[in-house]
Amino acid sequence: MKPALVVHGGCAAVSEEEEAVREAACERAADAGWEVLLAGIGALEAVEAAILRLEDEPILNAGTGSYLQADGVARMDASIMTGDGRAGAVAQVPGLRHPIRLARYLLEQDAHVMLSGQEATQLGLKLGHESGVVATPQKIAYWQQHMTDACLKLDYQGMAEEWKHGHPRLGTVGAVALDAAGKLAAGTSTGGTGQCYPGRIGDSPIIGAGTYCSKQVGVSLTGVGERIMVLLSAKRLCDLVASGNPLEASGKAVMEEIETMATASAGLVAIGADGGIITLWDTPFMAAARREKR
Ligand code: ASP
Q1: Residues of the chain scoring pLDDT < 70
Q2: Which among 203, 219, 263, 268 is the best mutation to test ligand 1's pocket, defined by most ligand atoms within 8 Å of the CB?
């Protein structure tokens, strides 16, 4: 089996200059994951390696670069899954440099799929995972400039209205890999939609919503989590493929389902068991990078 890897840096509408920076970040992460795959190590390790790198990119909305919630604190979500049905996820964890590492730990332990909040952070620190001051000058400035009443009033339409004026708080990261043994893995990590009500959880840590991986396909989504999580879009894509639909058509069907909902936009990356890669998005831009052996 020829290995394959795809990473994304979130769907968004950003300046051309920022597009290039996000793309370069994805290329670096793809290199990190690809190196793991070429060394004959597994898809799970490759996905983690790529996301670790993405979580260190201040321009992206995950790990170090996470957007801040309405109270000025970054609380992060992440999930990871393998084709054999193992999964790990963390929701609303503050103060960790690499939420994906804790998600992977949960996957390996196979005792609980998801942990949340301070308790999850404490576990990560106890395990020796690095703490992180998650508040870059850029994201603090963003928070100061764009914090509106709508966020604390839970006025979603008001928040969505503001996004239309060029401030979409998206930029979640994700990766999917197929290794030489034919195994798939997928993962997603995010600071959420930013400015949101403290404690808000999006699609990214929800297995089946932002991330899913079957034996036939692995997928990571980005976009408006409130819509993706009720559609369980990642699982839906895997189910469509399981019913015999081609990967590309399944991806497009999932995107259409999301687009039928109000204030929805999204992007996804996926890899099928034959190594086929798809990248789809409906925002002006989504950073992505792929590696495959021809
Ligand atoms: N899907 C993420 C969330 O809703 C945001 C993003 O994709 O940037 O938390």
Answers
A1: 164-169
A2: 203
